[in-house]
Amino acid sequence: MAKILRTSEDYTIKAGAGSSGSNRITLDASQVRIPGNLDVEGTQTIIDTTTLSIEDNIMLVSRNNSTPSDVDAGMMVFRGTSNNAALYWNEGVDKFKAVTTTSDGTGNEITDTALVNIQAASPTAGDDVATKTYVDSQVVSGAAGFSINVTADDSTVVPIASGNTLAFIGGANINTQSAEPDTITISLPQDLTNMETISSASSNGSITLTANGTGSIVINEILTFDSNQGSDPTAAAVTKLYAKTPAGGGTGLFFVNSSVDSGTADEVISKKKATALAIALG
Fold first, then answer.
1. What is the CB-side half-sphere exposure of residue 277 using CA atoms within 13 A?
2. Nearest Cα residue to 70 out of 62, 82, 58, 79
3. What is the pTM of this model?
C-alpha cells in the first residue's frame, strides 16, 4: 500500500543522539527516487554500484577551490595492489598529466610515480594530437627514411639520410666546434694562412690593417702595386703611397700628403736620378 508523508515545513530524520546523529539510516527498496536536488554534506561519498550513469554532460570537480591555489584535480582509477592511475590537471605546472601514482584520492595533491602513454587516433586536423605512428610517417618517411639535401657555395647537393651525421668542417682559416645544446661555433684563427685575395664588398670601400699598440704592419716579401693610377688621389692628412707612370723621379712611386708641399703629389726619387742630379748641380 502506497503511503505519502507530507509536511508544511522542513522535515528531519535523525538517527541517534547529537546534532548530526550517530547511527545509520537505511532505505531498503529496489529503487529510491529523489525528484528534487540532493545535497550531500560530509567528508566522504561512496557509491557501490555496478553501473553508474550520469545525465549531466559536464562534471565539475574541485568545486570549492575558490582561488587558483595548488590543488590538483581530475580522475583516478583504483588498481588494487598496483599504483593507481590518474588523468588530472596539475595546478603547479598548469598541465594535464596522465600518470601512475601512489596517491589514494585524498588530499589536494597527486604524487606522480611515472608518466603513462595515451593512445589516440591518427590526426587529421592541424590541432589534433600527433601519434608516434604519424610522426614517424612524416619525419622518418617510413621505410625510405628521413632525408634532406644540403648544398654549399660549389652547388654540390649532398643528401643527409636518417642516421647520418651532418658535419661542419672548417677550411684552412676556419675553425668549427660543436657543443650541447645544439650549438655549432664557426671562428677564424688569429693567424690567417694561405690567403690569396682580400677585397672590400663596399663600393669604393677601404681595407684597414691595424697593428696592436706600438706594433707594425710587416711585409716579409715584395709589395706590388698591380696597376698605375691614372691621376693623383685627393690629398689628406695622411700619406697616400701609389704607383703612376714614372716621371722625373724615375721610380713611378708617388705619394701625397696635405701636410707636405701643400698637398701636391710628388714622386719618390731613385738613387740613380739623385746621383745624376747632384753631379749636374755640381
1. 9
2. 62
3. 0.50
